Inverse folding.
């Protein structure tokens, strides 16, 4: 009985180990499947910003390698001969500051150029292009036609924009002309009222003088 129980336990343990091995094998197979690799490649391809950072960092490292201690020491040979350790410290500090300065300049350029948003926009355009059933543009082999096909939509948009601007400016000019005409009419009416007032005032003065002369004839004062 004990032997049977022991053999049963051994079989159960072997079965568990076999199941565990199969699960690990399945997991490894899943990682090695072409679809999984394709998904990883797609994700990596879409992370343009990370790829850009990687390329910049690699280029920067290559540039720093050219400023090696050997080149630095050969440039400042007299100082190198006097104090090698001091030259090593200077070179280390120089490369660190140089790398830091270049990285700061690159970050400023990326911020000014808005690289992150533009990379994301490129990703969106690529995804959108996959869902577009229309064929993508391809060069025809005739440069003149390709330039025209590329520039014509731009010029058409510019033409439409200029027409809208022209209409807006013409409307503004018409409104200004109407305001000028109304102003001139107002000035003319004011001048007419002033002229009429002056004529009425002159007529009033004349009538007053006539009445005054009739009440007090001039020969009375002469006497």
């Amino acid at each position: 009985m004990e032997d049977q129980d022991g053999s049963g336990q051994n079989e159960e343990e072997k079965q568990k180990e076999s199941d565990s091995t199969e699960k690990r094998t399945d997991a490894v197979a899943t990682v090695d499947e072409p679809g999984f690799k394709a998904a990883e490649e797609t994700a990596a391809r879409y992370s343009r910003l990370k790829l850009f950072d990687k390329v910049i960092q690699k280029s920067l490292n290559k540039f720093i390698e050219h400023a090696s201690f050997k080149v630095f020491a050969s440039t400042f040979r007299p100082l190198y001969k006097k104090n090698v350790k001091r030259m090593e410290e200077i070179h280390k500090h120089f490369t660190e500051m140089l790398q830091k300065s270049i990285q700061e300049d690159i970050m400023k350029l990326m911020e000014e150029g808005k690289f992150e948003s533009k990379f994301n926009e490129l990703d969106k355009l690529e995804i959108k292009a996959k869902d577009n059933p229309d064929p993508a543009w391809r060069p025809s082999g005739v440069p003149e036609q390709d330039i025209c096909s590329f520039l014509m939509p731009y010029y058409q948009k510019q033409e439409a924009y200029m027409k809208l601007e022209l209409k807006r400016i013409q409307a503004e000019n018409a409104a200004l002309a109407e305001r000028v005409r109304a102003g001139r009419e107002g000035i003319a009416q004011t001048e007419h009222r002033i002229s009429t007032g002056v004529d009425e005032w002159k007529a009033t003065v004349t009538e007053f003088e006539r009445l005054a002369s009739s009440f007090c004839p001039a020969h009375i004062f002469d006497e």
The chain has nine helices and no strands.
